[in-house]
């Protein structure tokens, strides 16, 4: 007959066996997910390549120290194709792999909503490296799905919708005094989340009027209908939310219809497939950025040169996604070393209380996360408004819209 007195001994034996198994392993496996094909591919590829660059550097130095051993990182890579159902399958597969100790990646909010529950159930630490939809983290404080204090294994390394909305509203409404706003957003989870975040903030601002709210689907190539409604509503500025190809269709449509209004939107306006597809029509588009491909700090220069050398490219397909993927891996690696273990709970707790600064492409990260508190969801978010700048498209590239933004980041990096 089973005795309850034996339970502590059985648990201790299981934990000891798991530790021995970890020490016997030849590598530390980290899942790397994202849309490596499809319309969001520039983001996914940039995340993947930024993450791989960080892993190459870590492995070149001998790997991660676990106990008395240094182990290299091995990647388990999966393409979610930017599709929710495929993303859910990827999450189920990776979360079931006992030897995968943590996960980095993903750029589509819908995929996160479809799949991150599996990582959470498996207690597998995961850093979202790109998706910015508020719903991605808000799901964990939603009624009926609240994750108790200290129990969430999901972290985010991207500026969320709220932070981005504040940045573009500050640029258009506060700085420029543009009071009549039209919003064009795609009908994905991400587009809806961004649209709703903008509406909430704009409706609370005295004298601001949202004169048109239009939606479009992935694959839409002609935005004439949506743009004409914005034009006839006397809009002074157009806010957009979507990914590169559809955002390019908006810019091209504005050019064709002679709509000479400022175009501001989500950080995805810096995607290579927006810049390339829109061509000169992209000039002047503005967006929040956590990283811009310019040598404005020594760490930025080092990362850019390293990425260009590794992948034989001049322009990074999405500098924001690449830098966030790089930094997310560096932070995750630091947590694994601090934990001295591949145990999910130990890694999560280390992420929440990193003791040593982590040198990244974007910043030197000093305790970027804190213990999860559902009353303060920002505890598992890394970016605040002071770390976000406004970028502007100029002749196929994104640069700083304001010199003072560049100086502010230079100051933060000292």
Structure, described:
The N terminus is likely disordered. α2 crosses α12, α3 packs parallel to α4 and α9 runs parallel beside α10. The chain is an alpha/beta fold. The protein contains 14 helices and 16 strands.
List the helices and strands and how they pair.
Elements: H1 7-24, E1 28-34, H2 41-60, E2 64-66, E3 69-71, E4 73-79, H3 84-95, E5 100-105, H4 109-122, E6 126-128, H5 135-138, E7 154-156, H6 161-175, E8 180-186, H7 189-203, E9 209-216, H8 224-232, E10 237-241, H9 244-257, E11 263-265, H10 272-278, E12 286-289, H11 298-311, H12 319-339, H13 344-352, E13 358-359, E14 364-365, E15 389-394, E16 397-400, H14 403-412
Parallel strand pairs: 1-4, 1-5, 5-6, 6-7, 8-9, 8-10, 10-11
Antiparallel strand pairs: 2-3, 12-15, 13-14, 15-16
Helix pairs in contact: 2-12, 3-4, 6-7, 9-10, 12-13
Compact summary:
It contains 14 helices and 16 strands.
Give descriptors for this structure.
Rossmann fold, four-stranded parallel sheet, 16 strands, 2 domains, alpha/beta, 14 helices, 414 residues
Gyration radius, rounded:
22 Å
H/E order of the elements?
HEHEEEHEHEHEHEHEHEHEHEHHHEEEEH
Our estimate of the beta-strand percent is 15-25%
Described by strand count, sense and barrel closure, the largest sheet is: 5 strands, parallel
């Amino acid at each position: 007959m089973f005795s309850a007195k034996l339970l502590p001994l059985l648990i201790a034996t299981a934990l000891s066996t798991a530790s021995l198994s970890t020490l016997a392993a030849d590598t530390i496996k980290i899942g790397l997910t994202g849309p490596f094909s499809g319309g969001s591919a520039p983001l996914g590829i940039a995340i993947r390549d930024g993450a791989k660059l960080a892993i190459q550097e870590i492995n070149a130095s001998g790997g991660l120290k676990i106990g008395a051993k240094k182990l290299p990182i091995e990647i388990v890579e999966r393409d979610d194709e930017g599709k929710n159902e495929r993303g859910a399958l990827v999450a189920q597969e990776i979360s079931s792999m006992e030897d995968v100790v943590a996960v980095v990646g993903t750029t589509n909010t819908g995929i996160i909503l479809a799949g991150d529950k599996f990582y959470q159930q498996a207690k597998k630490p995961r850093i979202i490296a790109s998706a910015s939809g508020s719903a991605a983290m808000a799901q964990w404080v939603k009624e009926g799905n609240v994750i108790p204090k200290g129990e969430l294994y999901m972290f985010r390394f991207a500026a969320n919708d709220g932070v981005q909305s504040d940045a573009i509203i500050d640029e258009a409404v506060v700085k420029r005094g543009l009071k009549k706003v039209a919003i064009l957003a795609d009908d994905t989870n991400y587009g809806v989340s961004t649209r709703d975040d903008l509406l909430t903030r704009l409706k609370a601002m005295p004298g601001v009027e949202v004169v048109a709210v239009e939606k479009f689907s992935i694959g839409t190539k002609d935005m004439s209908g949506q743009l004409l409604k914005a034009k006839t509503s006397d809009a002074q500025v157009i806010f957009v939310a979507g990914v590169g190809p559809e955002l390019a269709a908006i810019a091209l449509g504005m050019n064709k219809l002679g709509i000479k209004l400022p175009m501001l939107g989500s950080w995805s306006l810096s995607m290579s497939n927006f810049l390339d597809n829109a061509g000169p029509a992209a000039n002047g588009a503005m967006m929040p950025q956590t990283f811009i491909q310019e040598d404005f700090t020594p760490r930025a220069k080092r990362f850019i040169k390293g990425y260009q050398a590794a992948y034989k490219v001049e322009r990074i397909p999405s500098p924001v996604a690449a830098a966030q993927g790089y930094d997310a891996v560096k932070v995750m690696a630091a947590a694994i070393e601090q934990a001295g273990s591949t145990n999910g709970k130990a890694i999560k707790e280390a992420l929440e209380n990193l003791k040593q600064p982590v040198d990244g492409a974007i910043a030197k990260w000093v305790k970027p996360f804190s213990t999860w508190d559902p009353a303060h969801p920002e505890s598992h978010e890394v970016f605040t408004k002071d770390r976000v700048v406004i970028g502007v498209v100029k002749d196929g590239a994104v640069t700083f819209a304001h010199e003072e933004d560049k100086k502010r980041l230079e100051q933060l990096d000292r």
